[in-house]
Design a protein that fits this description.
two-stranded antiparallel ribbon, alpha/beta, 200 residues
Length: 200
């Protein structure tokens, strides 16, 4: 309750300054124990958004990772979030950080600074900002069906988060995957029901 009160105080100050339609709260995930666990709980996020009266940025990859950390089914987790207040959606591929990805971390020209956040990754730990897999496509098809059917709010923007900033992220960014996946994602956003039928 104390954490909720502090979060609401911060968000409400922004709402008072900029207006509820211009403030968007994003759900977090936490693979390294840096976020207080109550802030990952879907009820906590819903209460902040609804009580502050602001909009919601649903990061679906974050939601899937948070659900995994909490031992919940991802769709059940998302159902408890304030999906009616969605203004923006972020998505990314999620894969265990092993094999090819782990090998890239051991390039001889990478410094400690290049590794940054990656230095504490556990073998096989789930990670986002990677290319979309078949499992991701299935989940995102379901998500956009919820929007198309009016079950969730309709976002004004959808962002694919692939790669990031820094030397290691440059190595992890798969240009060929982006060239193939961006047009497919665009088609899914525009017509999720057709994409769902096409993938069956």
């Amino acid at each position: 309750e104390a954490l909720l009160a502090h979060a609401l105080r911060d968000v409400q100050a922004l709402v008072a300054r900029f207006g509820p339609e211009r403030v968007i709260v994003e759900n977090a995930d936490d693979g390294k124990g840096l976020i207080l666990q109550p802030a990952l709980q879907p009820d906590f996020i819903r209460r902040v958004v609804e009580e502050a009266g602001c909009r919601f940025l649903l990061d679906i990859a974050h939601a899937r990772l948070a659900a995994h950390i909490l031992g919940m089914d991802a769709r059940t987790y998302i159902a408890q979030l304030p999906t009616g207040r969605i203004s923006e959606i972020h998505l990314a591929g999620i894969q265990p950080f092993q094999g090819h990805w782990s090998t890239l971390m051991h390039q001889p020209d990478l410094s400690k600074e290049d590794l940054g956040w990656f230095a504490g990754l556990q073998p096989g730990q789930w990670m986002d900002h990677l290319p979309l897999t078949d499992r991701d496509w299935t989940f995102y098809t379901w998500a956009f069906e919820q929007i198309d059917r009016g079950q969730w709010g309709r976002p004004w923007i959808v962002t694919l988060e692939h790669g990031g900033v820094g030397r290691l992220w440059e190595l992890l960014t798969d240009q060929a995957a982006l060239a193939e996946q961006v047009p497919r994602l665009s088609a899914l956003v525009k017509n999720p029901i057709a994409d769902s039928k096409g993938s069956q």
